[in-house]
Amino acid sequence: MSTQEVKMILVQLEDNKKLLQIGRSTFYDAFGPPVNSEENINSYLNEKFTLENITAELQNPKSTFYFAILNTETVGYVKLNWDDAQTEPMDARAMEIERIYVVKEYQGNRIGQILFEKALQVAKEKSMEFLWLGVWDENLGAIKFYKRNGFKIFDRHSFTLGTEIQTDIMMKLKL
């Protein structure tokens, strides 16, 4: 696979069902059993990844999504937030990468890097001062990826998955 074949496409409102499907499947693959219980992952998905929620997220003018498309297949996506759409109060010149996921079969093919580079491009176009994100403290591969791309740890916060409270490491990249 050549990464030159990967196209970044702005997700439109009419893509809500496709976004819901890839969002649910990639989140389940990343955080489902055995790393979390079936009950907790399904509880989270059924609460957060609904057609109603995804549609509302797509309608928020301070959030944007991009699909990574390889040939005709959607192989990943990224969600970006700024201003009051961010999941934590931040400076007005901050942009959050709330979600960045790659379909399991395509992991290890630089799709995540392409999604990150799109986030970086959008942040620079909007004259942001830094990008930030939260990543589960047990997701060592993702932490390594973000560190390799220049992110630094600046805080921690709690994240509830079903009935379990987990810790996210908050990381940022000064632009």
What is the succession of H and E elements?
Answer: EHHHEEEHEHEE
- The geometry reads as globular
Strand content: 25-35%
Annotation, overall tally of beta strands: 7
What is the strand arrangement across the widest sheet? 1-2-3-4-5-7-6
Radius of gyration equals 15 Å
Quickly give the structural class. Answer: alpha+beta
Q: What percentage of residues falls in helices of 4 or more residues?
A: 25-40%
Largest sheet: 7 strands, mixed
What is the residue-averaged pLDDT? 96
How many helices? The count is: 5
Query: What is the distance, rounded to the nearest whole angstrom, between the alpha carbons of the first and last residues?
Result: 30 Å
Which runs of at least 5 residues are low in confidence (pLDDT < 50)?
none
Compile the SSE list and pairings.
Elements: E1 6-10, H1 16-31, H2 38-48, H3 51-59, E2 63-70, E3 73-82, E4 94-102, H4 111-125, E5 130-136, H5 140-148, E6 152-161, E7 164-174
Helix pairs in contact: 1-3
Structural write-up:
The chain has a seven-stranded mixed β-sheet with strand order 1-2-3-4-5-7-6, sandwiched between helices. It has helices at residues 16-31, 38-48, 51-59, 111-125, 140-148; strands spanning 6-10, 63-70, 73-82, 94-102, 130-136, 152-161, 164-174. 30% of the residues are buried. Helix content is 34%, strand content 34%. It contains five helices and seven strands. It has 175 residues and is an alpha+beta fold. The chain is globular, with a radius of gyration of 15 Å. The two termini are 30 Å apart.
